[in-house]
Amino acid sequence: MERKIKKVLIANRGVSAVRVMHTCRDKKIPTTAVYSTPDRLGLHVLSSDSAVHIGEAPPIKSYLNMDAIIEAALKTGCNAVHPGWGFLSENHIFAQRVIDSGLIWIGPKPEVIKAMGDKIEAKKWAKRANVPVIPGIDNAKSYEEIIDWMKEEDISFPILVKASAGGGGKGMLKVERAEDIQNAFTQVKSEALKSFGDDKVLVEKYIERGRHIEVQIIADEYGSICHLFERECTIQRRNQKIIEETPSPSLDDTLRQEICFTAVRFMREIGYTSAGTVEFLYDSNTKKFYFLEVNTRLQVEHGITELSTGLDIVSLMIDIAEGKKLPFNQSDIHQNRWSIECRLNAEDPKNFSPSFGRITRLQVPHGPGIRISPGAYEGASIPPFYDSMFMLLISAGADRTDAIRTMDRALSRGLRVEGVKTIAPLLLSILRHPKFISGEFSTRFIEEHMDELISSFKERDPEDEVLKIARYVAEISALGQQKWM
Q: Is the pLDDT of residue 432 over 70?
C-alpha cells in the first residue's frame, strides 16, 4: 500500500541531518529540523524549511527526547520521521512511538530493530540462518564462567568482552591475560548499564588481524531484497571507523559473492525492510568470515556505496517507507568506481582528544571525483556535547589507486580548517602509508603504526601565511615592482 510522504522531520543534527535534507530537497519534500540550544545556528537548522527547538545541550534533554521530537513533528505538519544515524536511529521504542503517533517511520520495522539491537538475540538469528558466528558465550553471568568456557572450548587469549546492547565501538574490552578477566567483566557490565541500560555481557574469541567487512542491504515490503555490495571498514581508532572504502581490497570475487549473498540470506530470514547493514569480521589468515551485528539504520559510510553504484540510499528508504517496490533487481546493480570515505573529526590527531570551538576558516575541497557531506560551515561552532565528526570527505576513481590519489588531493591541497584541530593529518598519513596502499591492514593498524603516522605529519600553521605575506612585502619594498606584476 502506497503512503505519500508530505513533510519529513529529521530527528538528528549535523552531517546526518544535512545528508537526509539533500535528498528530500531533490524529491521536493519539505523538512523540519530539531535543534538543541547550542545548535541554534547549526548547518542542519539553516538547511531545513522549518526548525524547532527541543531542549538544552545534553542529548537526554534534546536529541534523545522522544516526546519533544514527536511533538515537533506533529506541530509542524510533518507526516514522517527519518532518524539519520546515531541518537534514536536504532531505538525500537522510538520507532514504535513514531508509528503510534500516526507518523511514517523511515526505517525498518520496530520489532526487527529490537531483535537486532540485542547482540545475543542477533547471534541466535544468525545461527538460524546458517550464518557463521564467532565462538563465544552469549550471556556471561560471571568471570568464572568465562574461564570455564575457555577451558572447555580450548579458547586461547586474547578474548573480547563486550556489552550485548552496545554499538559504535562502546562497551568493549580486549583481554589478554587470565588475571584481567574479572576487571574487564566488571567494567564492561558497569559501562553497559550506564550507556545502554542493559548490563548483559557476551564474550567472544578475539580474531587477531581481523578486518571489518559490512554489506549494504536494501529491501522493500514485497520480499524483494538486494545487496549493494560490501564496504571495508577496517581502519579504526578506539573501535570507531575513520576510513572506509568499497570494494574491499581484502576480497576476491568468489568471497565477495559469498559474503554478500550470506548477508541477503540473513536479512531475508529476519524479514528486513528499508536500508540496513550486516557487519562481518573477516579473518584474513583463515579466509573465513563471521557475523558481527546488524545496523538497522542508514550508515555513516553509505555515501561510498552511492558513489560506486550510482544509487541514492536515502531516496530508496523514503520510497520504501511510502510503500513502493524496489525499482531494480540484483542483476541490475553494478559497481563501476572505487570509492573511499574519510571522517573529519574535530580532534587532536596525535591523541584523539576533542577539539571544540569556532571554525574560523573552512576551505572545502572541490574538483573531479570528490563529494563532501558537510555538517558545519565557516564561522560555525563545534559544541562539546556531541560526536566530533563535522564533515565526510568522499573520493571516487576508476580503481583504488585513482581513488586514493583523489582523496590525497582533497586532504592535502583542498582542505583547510582553522580554529579547531582535526584528524586530517592522520588521515593523510594513513593514505600515504605503504601498508595501506598495498591493502595490508587490520583493525589494529592505527595502534601498531601510530608513532610512524604521527612522525609524517606536515605541520601547518596560520603563521605560515603571515610569513608568506611578510616575505612578499619585503621583496617588493627592497626590489621594487617585479616583471610578473
A: yes
Written as nine digits, the cell of 135 is 565462538
> How high is the pLDDT of residue 209?
81
> CB–CB of 389/374 below 8 Å?
no
Q: Which residues pair with residue 104 across a beta bridge?
A: 80
Would you call 297 a catalytic residue per the annotation?
A: yes
Q: Are residues 199 and 220 in the same domain?
A: no
End-to-end distance of the chain based on CA atoms, in angstroms?
A: 69
pLDDT, average across residues 124-149: 91
Cβ neighbors of 93 (< 8 A, separation 6 or more) are 66, 110
Q: Could you give the residue ranges of the DSSP H alpha helices within 333-444?
A: 400-409, 424-432, 434-437
| SS3 of residue 57 by DSSP | coil
Q: How far, in Å, CA of 453 to CA of 105, rounded?
A: 43
CA distance 267 to 126: 9
What value does the CA radius of gyration of the chain take, rounded to a whole number of Å? 23
* pLDDT tens digits for range 143-183: 899 999 999 988 889 999 998 886 666 788 999 999 999 99
- Phi and psi of 403, rounded to 5°? -65, -40
| Residue 285 pLDDT > 90 | no
Single-letter amino acid code for the residue at 63: Y
Name the pLDDT band for 452 (thresholds 50, 70, 90).
Answer: very high
Grid cell digits, residue 289:
568470515
Say whether both 263 and 189 belong to one domain. no
pLDDT tens for residues 9-68? 999 999 999 999 999 999 999 999 999 999 999 999 999 999 999 999 999 999 999 999
Give the angle 303-306-311 at the CA atoms, nearest 5°. Answer: 145
- Rounded CA separation 192/162 (Å): 8
* Domain membership of residue 367 as a residue range: 210-462
**Grid cell in block for residue 384:** 562539546
Whether residues 180 and 220 fall in one domain = no
User: What CATH number corresponds to the domain at position 69?
Assistant: 3.40.50.20
Q: What is the structure's pLDDT at 84?
A: 98
Q: The CATH number of the domain where 458 resides is what?
A: 3.30.470.20
CATH code of the domain containing 150: 3.30.1490.20
Task: Indicate the DSSP class of residue 222.
Answer: T
Residues 174 and 224 in one domain: no
Q: Which of 97, 231, 237, 297 is catalytic?
A: 297
> Ramachandran region of residue 379, left (φ > 0), alpha (ψ -120 to 50) or beta?
left
For residues 232 and 194, membership in a common domain is answered with: no
